[in-house]
Design goal:
- The chain has 553 residues and is of the alpha/beta class.
- The protein has 5 domains: 3-43, no CATH class; 56-177, Tetrapyrrole methylase, C-terminal domain (Methyltransferase, Cobalt-precorrin-4 Transmethylase, Domain 2, 2-Layer Sandwich), CATH 3.30.950.10; 211-336, Rossmann fold; 342-407; 420-542, CobE/GbiG C-terminal domain (Nucleotidyltransferase, domain 5), CATH 3.30.420.180.
- The chain has 21 helices and 23 strands.
- Strands 7-6-8-9-10-11 form a 6-stranded mixed beta sheet, sandwiched between helices. The protein has a 5-stranded mixed beta sheet with strand order 1-2-5-3-4, with helices on both faces.
- It is elongated and about 105 Å long.
- It starts with a helix and ends in a 10-residue tail after the last strand.
- The relative contact order is 0.07.
Length: 553
C-alpha cells in the first residue's frame, strides 16, 4: 500500500469512531517509515500512540546469546545500514562508524556483504567477530558466525540475500574469552540502591595502617617558660620522632590549618581552655585529627586531650611525662579500666577494621570484662594474643575475624591484615581509573579484601606509568620497582612471550609480586585482562601482643 492508501484508512476509520491498529513487524521506531505517517496524523489533529516492539537487531543478539555492552569492551551500540536506494548521510557512512569499534548492527545491508566488509575494515580488525542472523526469532531463523576475514564467503555459501541483520564487534566473543571482565553491578565493592557494597574508606586505612604518612610533631609554646619546656621535650624525643618543630603560639595562629594538617601530633604548653578555643574549628573525627596534648606552664601534668588511641596521644603523653618527670593524664575508658585498647592493638599489628560500629561494640565488650573470640586465617602466624582475646577454630563462633579475604558472615567484625604484594602490568598510557576498576574486579573475583594490599609492584619499565603510580596512591600502598635482571632471576614461572618481546623479561606481575614479598608464596597466579595483568604474593605476617609506643615508627 502507498502512504496515501495507508493514511486514508487511518483517518477515515478514526472519524468513524474506530480504534485503528497500524501493525508493523519488529520495532516501529527503527527503519519502519512511521515518521511520515505521524506527520500526517498530527496535521489532521488525530491522536496516536506508538507501542514499542522488539527490533530485529536486538532479537538477533538474543538469539546469539550475547550482551552487546560489556564493560571495558564496548558500552555503545550503533544501529545503521549501508547506503542503497535510500542514501545515508556522509557523516554516517559505516567506514566512519567502524572507527569507533562499538557493537554495530547493520540492517538492509546483507545483499551488499562484500562492500560492507570492505567499509568495516576501515576501523575494525580483520579478526573482529561477525554474526549474520536471518529472520531472528522466527522458526526458520538461521545464524552464520565468522569474522570479517571470512563472513562474506560464508554468507554467499549459505545463500542469504535478505531478511538478515549483521552484528559486528568484540562483544560477540562474550565474557569468557574477554578475560572474565564483568559489570560492576554484581561486584561486592559496588553499592547501589538495593545493596551496600564493601566500603573502601581511605580515612580508616590511613588511620590504622602501620605505613602511615610521615608527619611532623609540632610543639607550641606561650612565654619563655613554655619555650624552655618545649626545648626539653624536643631534646628528650630526639631519635624517637622523624622531626620535631618548636614554634610560638603567635606563629601557630597565623596558619592553624597548615600546622593541623602537616602534624601527626600537636603539643601545647598552654591551658586546655586556650587550646580548645584555638583548634575547635579544625576538628573532624578521631580517624583524621592529630594527637593533641596540653601541658601547663608548671610542667607537672601532661594531658592527653584528643585522639588518644588512633592518633597516639595517650602513649605520647606517657613518653613526654617521663621526660618532664610529670604526671600523664589519660581519660580514655579502656586505659583507665586497664583493659586492652583493641583499636590501638589493631593499629600496632597493621590490622585494619572494616566496620567502626562493630569495632566500638568489641571495645565495649572488652571493657565489660568479656572474652573476645577471634578466628584467625591459617596463612597468618600467631606468636601470642592479648589475654582478652581467645582464638577459635570456626568463623561462626567468633566475634572478630582476622582475615585478608572477603567475609560473608554478618555481625562479626572483619579485621584485615596488610600482607599482600600486588604485582601489576599494564598497557602504556592506560587510564588510571580503569586500572583501579580492573583491580577491584580482580580482587572481588579472588575473594580478597582491598585493605589487604600492602605493596604494589612492577618492572622498572612500567614504574613511571601514571595508572600504576595512581593505583598505589589509591590503595595507600608502597610502590616497589624491580629491574628486569632481578625479575629474570625468579625461577619456576611460566615465561610470558609478550613480556619477553616488549620488555626482555620473563613476566611482570607474577615475578615482581614474588620479589616484593621476599620469596613469599604466589597466592594468585597471573590474571589477564585485555589491557593489564595482576598477581598476588603473600608476605610473612605475624600477630602478637605488641602495642607500639607512639613516637617510634
Amino acid at each position: 500500500m502507498t502512504l496515501d492508501e495507508v493514511t486514508s484508512i487511518l483517518i477515515e476509520d478514526y472519524h468513524k469512531g474506530k480504534r485503528v491498529v497500524r501493525l508493523h513487524t519488529g520495532d516501529p521506531t527503527i527503519y519502519s517509515a512511521i515518521g511520515e505517517q505521524i506527520s500526517i496524523l498530527k496535521e489532521k489533529d488525530i491522536p496516536f500512540k506508538v507501542i514499542p516492539g522488539v527490533t530485529a537487531g536486538l532479537a538477533a543478539a538474543s538469539s546469539l546469546g550475547c550482551e552487546l555492552t560489556i564493560p571495558g569492551v564496548s558500552q555503545t551500540v550503533i544501529i545503521s545500514r549501508i547506503a542503497g536506494r535510500t542514501p545515508v548521510p556522509e557523516t554516517e557512512d559505516i567506514s566512519i562508524l567502524s572507527r569507533i569499534r562499538a557493537s554495530l548492527i547493520l540492517y538492509l545491508s546483507i545483499s551488499k556483504i562484500d562492500k560492507v566488509v570492505e567499509r568495516l575494515l576501515s576501523g575494525y580488525d580483520v579478526k573482529t567477530p561477525v554474526a549474520v542472523v536471518k529472520k531472528a526469532t522466527w522458526p526458520s531463523e538461521r545464524i552464520i558466525r565468522g569474522t570479517l576475514s571470512n563472513i562474506s564467503k560464508k554468507v554467499k555459501e549459505a545463500g542469504i540475500k535478505r531478511h538478515a541483520v549483521i552484528v559486528v564487534g568484540e562483544a560477540l566473543r562474550g565474557i569468557t574469552d574477554l578475560q572474565k571482565q564483568a559489570s560492576k553491578l554484581y561486584s561486592r565493592y559496588f553499592s547501589h540502591g538495593f545493596r551496600k557494597g564493601i566500603d573502601f574508606d581511605k580515612k580508616v586505612l590511613r588511620a590504622f595502617s602501620k605505613n602511615e604518612d610521615k608527619k611532623n610533631l609540632t610543639i607550641i609554646f606561650l612565654g619563655e617558660k613554655g619555650k624552655r619546656i618545649s626545648e626539653k621535650i624536643k631534646k628528650g624525643l630526639y631519635k624517637k620522632c622523624e622531626k620535631v618543630d618548636v614554634i610560638s603560639y603567635e606563629i601557630f595562629k597565623k596558619d592553624i590549618t597548615k600546622f593541623w594538617e602537616d602534624s601527626r601530633a600537636l603539643v601545647f604548653i598552654a591551658s586546655c581552655g586556650v587550646v580548645i578555643r584555638t583548634i575547635s574549628a579544625q576538628l573532624k573525627d578521631k580517624l583524621q585529627d592529630p594527637a593533641v596534648i596540653c601541658i601547663a606552664e608548671s610542667g607537672k601534668n601532661v594531658i592527653s586531650l584528643l585522639s588518644g588511641h588512633i592518633g597516639g596521644a595517650n602513649s605520647l603523653a606517657i613518653e613526654i611525662s617521663k621526660i618532664l618527670d610529670a604526671v600523664p593524664v589519660i581519660t580514655t575508658s579502656s586505659d583507665t579500666s586497664f583493659k586492652l585498647p583493641f583499636d590501638l592493638w589493631c593499629k600496632s599489628q597493621g590490622l585494619i577494621p572494616t566496620n567502626l560500629r562493630l569495632l566500638k561494640d568489641v571495645q565495649a565488650k572488652i571493657r565489660n570484662g568479656e572474652k573476645i573470640k577471634v578466628f584467625i586465617e591459617e596463612i597468618l602466624d600467631v606468636n601470642d594474643l592479648p589475654s582478652e582475646l581467645k582464638k577459635v577454630k570456626k568463623k561462626e563462633e567468633a566475634n572478630v575475624i582476622i582475615s585478608p579475604f572477603l567475609n560473608e558472615i554478618d555481625r562479626r567484625l572483619l579485621v584485615v591484615p596488610r600482607l599482600f604484594c600486588l604485582g601489576v602490568g599494564c598497557h602504556k598510557g592506560m587510564e588510571p581509573r580503569l586500572l583501579f576498576e580492573r583491580c577491584l574486579d580482580f580482587l572481588d573475583k579472588n575473594g580478597i579484601h582491598l585493605y589487604s594490599i600492602k605493596k604494589v609492584t612492577t618492572i622498572d619499565k612500567k614504574g613511571d606509568e601514571p595508572a600504576i603510580i595512581e593505583l598505589s596512591r589509591e590503595l595507600l600502598a608502597d610502590l616497589k620497582i624491580f629491574k628486569k635482571e632481578e625479575i629474570n632471576e625468579v625461577k619456576g614461572l611460566e615465561i610470558s612471550k609478550a613480556a619477553q618481546r616488549a620488555l626482555g623479561a620473563i613476566g611482570v606481575s607474577e615475578p615482581s609480586s614474588i620479589l616484593c614479598s621476599k620469596g613469599g608464596n604466589l597466592l594468585v597466579k597471573k590474571f589477564k585482562y585485555p589491557d593489564c595483568t595482576f598477581a598476588i604474593s603473600l608476605e610473612k605476617f605475624s600477630i602478637s601482643t605488641k602495642i607500639t609506643c607512639y613516637p617510634k615508627t
